[in-house]
Write a structure and sequence with these properties.
The chain is mainly β and 123 residues long. The radius of gyration is 13 Å and the shape is globular.
């Protein structure tokens, strides 16, 4: 089992920045691809960003590319999502997830999920 705990959400204005954290405990963190998801119309969980085991190759949804940056610190069992130039449409609960499959982008590919952290962007 792996437990994931997100933090860092909050209420900000459009154009502001936030940094989300996801701390993992339990199974070997460095063996997992880590991802961020959020709900979106028509889908339960929309892919936002993910990062593979070594941390050298994060990948992003087109809607956040250039604004969000994902990184990981394996010794600290933590991943980060730096969100800049936030827009009202970024408002959502953000979920952290862990997968064994490299380059995973679909929620069904992820094995473990956190409880989520709320991000609200006022326009």
């Amino acid at each position: 089992q792996m437990q994931l705990a997100e933090s860092g959400g909050g209420l900000v204005q459009a154009g502001d920045s936030l940094r989300l954290f996801c701390e993992a405990s339990g199974r070997s963190f460095s063996a997992y691809v880590m991802g961020w998801f959020r709900p979106a119309p028509g889908t339960e969980r929309e892919f936002v960003a993910a990062i593979n085991w070594s941390g050298g190759s994060p990948y992003y949804a087109d809607s956040v590319k250039g604004r969000f940056t994902m990184s990981r610190d394996n010794p600290k069992n933590t991943v980060y999502l730096q969100m800049n130039s936030l827009k009202a449409e970024d408002t959502a609960v953000y979920y952290c997830a862990a997968a064994r499959k490299i380059n995973a982008v679909y929620d069904i590919e992820y094995d473990y999920w956190g409880q989520g952290t709320q991000v609200t962007v006022s326009s």
